[in-house]
Amino acid sequence: MKKRYLLLAVGTTLTLIAMYYLLGDSKVQAVGAVGTAKLSKHLMVAPPNAALPTPPIPIQKVTQPNDEAKPASYAPSEQEVEVYIPPIGQSVTSDSYQGDLDDYESYQAYGDEQERKLKQAFIIAAKDKVKRLEALLQRGREEGISEEELTFAENKIAGIKQMSEQLQQELSEEN
Predict the structure, then answer these.
(1) What whole-number distance in Å separates Cα of residue 153 and Cα of residue 80?
(2) Residue 127: its pLDDT value, please?
(3) Is the pTM value of this prediction over 0.70?
(4) How far apart are CA 134 and CA 126, in angstroms?
(5) How far is residue 162's CA from residue 146's CA, in Å, rounded to a whole number?
(6) Residues of the chain with pLDDT under 70
(7) Which residues pair with 31 in a beta bridge?
């Protein structure tokens, strides 16, 4: 373990020396999370308690989904950044294979079961998605969108229906 740390320290030192000689004596380029900045050589060897200059950080305003609506004339300033943070929900955990990895048949059965669940989930989700897309398509017809967009949407709906039917057929053949 100590050998790893020693090799890491030696590698880092050699990299810094190579950067120093490759980039020249007068300026050393430092890359940080904020961006690239040219720093003079004496700043690179400053004592650890010396304060290095930092670029100004813009003020960020965090908005929650329940925040009251802003007036129509509201425009965020240069220093204000709108950040959307979605509500925290239950984390989704998947059941992982608990058997012996050397047992091929058992692992294959687990994989087949996962595939079957995925197909069933697609079929269920496709029904709701098709209903929603058809409602949006009808709304688009009423609002007068172009024929090209209508045809594109109809093809997408038909593709989802076709895939759902194909998966339904595959599931019935497996049983």
Answers:
(1) 38
(2) 94
(3) no
(4) 12
(5) 24
(6) 1, 24-79
(7) 36
